[in-house]
Amino acid sequence: MRRVLTSLSMLLGASMLILAPHFVRAESINAGERVAKAEAPFNVTSIAEFDTPWAIAFLPDGRLLLTEKGGRIFIVTQEGQKTEVAGVPEVAATGQNGLLDIAPAPDFKTSRAVYFTFNAPAKGGSYVILVRAVLNEDGGKAVLEDRTAIWEQATVARGGQPGGIITFTPDGKHLFLSVGDRMEPASAQDDNAPMGKILRMNPDGSVPADNPYANEGGIRALTWSTGHRNPYGLAFAADGKLWEHEMGPRGGDEFNLIKPGLNYGWPVVSNGDNYSGRPIPRHSTRPEFEAPPLFWTPVIAPAGLVFYEGKMFADWDGSALIGALSSMALVRVVINSDGQPDEVERFAMENRIRDVAVASDGAIWLIEDDNPGRLLRLTPKE
Prior knowledge:
This protein has an eight-stranded mixed β-sheet. The chain is built from three helices and 25 strands. The longest helix has 18 residues. By secondary structure, it is mostly beta strands. The chain has a domain of 247 residues: 6 Propeller (Neuraminidase). The N terminus is likely disordered. The protein is globular and about 60 Å long. The relative contact order is 0.14.
């Protein structure tokens, strides 16, 4: 009898261990087979055209900053009037590389500071660089002055997949920067390499004292999370949680909740496979890596991410809006009360959508990855 009770106790203990919250992981949702709607609840107005626009960001006065991959920055009014900004540094614009993201500083009204990323030319390739500059406007002209390199990728790389997405914490005290693996997958698991990481820094580029590896020095001190492939979306939800999306290989685009010190597995695991056809172990086989709660196979090639806040699309409040390059769509993701995200709608846009932003009046703005690529304004249908 004692032997039976002992065996039963061991069995119950093992069951409790399996069910313990630390070991239980919700199954990832694959939204890759979802179909885009031809009919959308919004009107689309073309505002202006550009040569392969890459990123948009709103200034406090309602105008937009817009980057073109080839190396130009514009200030654009909501009516479509353009002012080209002088003082942009030389850009290595080849393949996926070029002039990347842009964001006004949280204190822009007083500092006039903007942050932007680009691929800087170098012998044998390029490196990703984050720059802070002052936007000076006078007499109808605009120029970037006092340019300062806040962070530079120390390793020159030949490949694309630069990442380069900038986002500030809601309190404006810290800056997050995504860096892709630059087509060198192993670098994403190399603690001493900047590639395949999400970095957290102070606005001047220094290391915050509460970073998970702040005392280790080098790139490790700035590292917030690791094991990323090509992160092209990084944004805070209204509850203060940081979400990221990244492009997978052949399958396995990911939507991730980013937490300090975690490893998201690339290239050891993925929900996609190599372009050569060689399989990659799935996330489910390696629980020590953080699995995406939502992924896409087939891929959508996500680019641009914003959480909707506004009155125009009141039913969308809190939704994540994602541009999709390969599926030529605008994707809406809802995160439920348990923290599980899922794609709820996908709207056909008839072109590759590179970035998404929301204006203060609640209108949604998009740019197309094309030449000419349009700047679009979405407003609700009556």
